């Protein structure tokens, strides 16, 4: 029933909208078809902009032509207007000005309570006039056409001030500035702790001041480059301490615990008591970054976050390893024993014990150090028991049968007949060093190593030696008699000779009984005499000096090897008694 009226209303409205759109489109089409005619106001604005551009363009062109080869107007150095000057003329003016200024000017450097005078000649100040005049000329000339015009336009209303280029002598400036820095610098003081009469004393923090020498150099050059006199403020920087009062709390807690009780160190019936006053010498207060300790609970169950300060570091109490190890070394001197082989002798076909072996004993120093560290961090138990390690000697009286020393293997002999008193003394002293020496199987024996240091401290006297083909007096002269006799015993034992050097020329002491060529010279540290024990058994060396004869006896297991020394044969002769055999 209602459908027809509704449809009729919709159709009517659609016709109205269509007629309205048609009217708007018609008006737009008429406007587009008409030619564009700017208004009077638009023409005036456009003309003004164009006129300004033309005027600015003409200004740039004229300025570029007029100012070609000259410095732009209104450009100053200090109180000198160098505008409209040619670079060379500006250079001459600056040269004349600088001559008097550099000789007479005085600048005053000031801080809160100190003043210092700076004369240009004190720092070897010079003006680079060529560089300065070129820089003056480059203003406006080194830029493009438009930028140069803008600079010229600005210079009409506002001057440009240039600082002359100044150089200081590279040696004079540090020599001037460093003493000033030493006088005005105030070192900062970190908060800290120290021991005094076994008490922990607080060291307060304080700020410091530091002269910024590069800034001072810049300010001084700027003043001289503008021909100024008067005062320059010293550029001082405040330096804050890296540790403040609150940063020492953890270290104080740690140190107080370490010195709260004495420390007892025990080994069997020996007792070593370390008093708190001695423990203080082991404690070092060390600055470390806070990020390594934040959130770590101490034995008192507080965290370092309870006392965070603005600094990035905190103080810790640490034990000095060198100090503790030095104390451990003193204890070791009273407890340690060096392992020692039994001293033996062979006589009447029997191996005998001269002195018994000694089992070595040594403190386990690393373990003791760790135990001391742990004990000092303990509130209640302050007792440490020393642990030791033992070393059993290789040659013991209960194992003699295992050595294989059952017979005489070889005997080396030589004659010291005609030797002066000091030479005989040195030979006897040296031979005693080798009496009772044991060479284990597979060992390479070194004569120099067994002999040790040669000098007055070890009982030797001055006597002639052959050195660099010359015969000169030295301590230990005659020891080559001992090395030669050792060499002969090793040869006759059939042992491999690893190192041996003959004398530079023939020496009569070494001819008997084999003739020349069976000798061995030694000198610390080289040449040396070395041979290897390849018998598979231990070798015992025994020595004897009787009358003019020296003998070296090698005892061990001879086995089936035999050795003889044949009669010598001279191969060549040289100057000064030198020969080859």
Description of the molecule:
The protein has 581 residues and is α+β, with helices and mostly antiparallel strands. Among the domains are: 247-342 and 355-395, Ubiquitin-like (UB roll); 404-580, no CATH class. The protein is built from 14 helices and 32 strands. It has a four-stranded antiparallel β-sheet. α12 (421-434) crosses α14 (479-492). It is elongated.
Annotate the secondary structure layout.
Blueprint: H1 3-33, H2 40-66, E1 75-77, E2 80-81, H3 87-104, E3 107-110, E4 115-118, E5 126-127, H4 129-141, H5 145-157, E6 160-162, E7 166-167, H6 172-184, E8 192-196, E9 199-203, E10 208-211, H7 213-225, E11 230-233, E12 236-239, H8 249-258, E13 263-267, E14 270-274, H9 276-279, E15 283-289, E16 313-319, H10 321-335, E17 343-347, E18 350-355, E19 360-363, H11 365-376, E20 383-385, E21 388-391, E22 407-415, H12 421-434, E23 438-439, E24 444-446, H13 447-451, E25 462-467, E26 470-475, H14 479-492, E27 497-499, E28 530-532, E29 539-546, E30 549-556, E31 572-573, E32 579-580
Parallel strand pairs: 1-6, 3-11, 13-20
Antiparallel strand pairs: 1-2, 3-4, 5-7, 8-9, 10-12, 13-14, 15-16, 17-18, 19-21, 22-30, 23-29, 24-28, 25-26, 27-28, 29-30, 31-32
Q: Label the overall shape.
A: elongated
Strand order of the largest sheet: 22-30-29-23
The radius of gyration over CA amounts to 51 Å
Characterize the largest beta sheet: strand count, sense, and whether it forms a barrel: 4 strands, antiparallel
